[in-house]
């Protein structure tokens, strides 16, 4: 039995609480995962996992062994990477997830620069505006916007998005330019919805008196940034977006900022990844690159955590 592989398999089963999910994320047959766990338990002469038809859970001995496995695997990875060229030339597969607006309008225009620096990293870019479970889905790191709800991950601040309220010239010609939030009763908006946002019909602002939410009518809603922008460009209504994401449209005049005196509150942008004693060279390379990219775009500089 390959003891190191067995530890890796056991760790993934323990983290995902599923033999099937562990097999999927490790790209192994389910039979291999099952055999490895049985072999490990026979070798150790102790039960590590409780199995039922619905769930997998750790025994007290399994909890203790999991902590040792994580430490051992982390040390092995660090020892190997410190002796390989990958420290100087990061390589390997890196799976990341980010909101579609950041992927299309911030990362994609600079992606060739990333590959000029790190030609041996194979990026798997997941694009969605939903929350991602890094462990369950085998994701190395994610970019998230908004206030963080999960404190179990390492968080590296990338900056803050300045948000703007905007509309197409055709829409403004038909409905007029709103000069205050009170005017919005005569307007309509493209609404945005997600798993966390329930008040989809509201536009949000902030001024000297504090935050303000205004309910605005509309004909449609979207849960993907690219579609949300296209609907705004097509004249379906007002939209609130990160200035970085629509900067080109604002410069070209295909979108026009309105209500500049009542801007929405800035939104923090954060890179998240699981706790590891030693961060892989590929994750560190991407983290440093994306942090510099946001800084160049007007974000706040942030120190990289160890």
Structural features, described:
The protein has 306 residues and is an alpha/beta fold. It contains eleven helices and 14 strands. The protein folds into three domains: 3-83, Winged helix-like DNA-binding domain superfamily/Winged helix DNA-binding domain (Arc Repressor Mutant, subunit A), CATH 1.10.10; 86-161 and 267-296, 3-Layer(aba) Sandwich (D-Maltodextrin-Binding Protein, domain 2), CATH 3.40.190.10; 163-262, Periplasmic binding protein-like II (D-Maltodextrin-Binding Protein, domain 2), CATH 3.40.190.10. Helix content is 39%, strand content 23%. A hairpin with a 2-residue loop joins strand 9 and strand 10. The two termini are 34 Å apart.
The major β-sheet equals: 5 strands, mixed
Rounded Rg = 24 Å
For the termini, the CA-CA separation is: 34 Å
Adjacency order of strands in the biggest sheet: 4-3-5-14-6
Structural class: alpha/beta
CATH fold-level name of the largest domain: D-Maltodextrin-Binding Protein, domain 2
| Basic shape | elongated
Number of helices in the DSSP assignment: 11
Strand content bin: 15-25%
Broad CATH class of the largest domain: Alpha Beta
- The overall strand count is 14
Q: From N to C, what is the helix and strand string?
A: HHHEEHEHHEHEEEHEEEEHEHEEH
- Relevant CATH superfamily of the largest domain: Periplasmic binding protein-like II
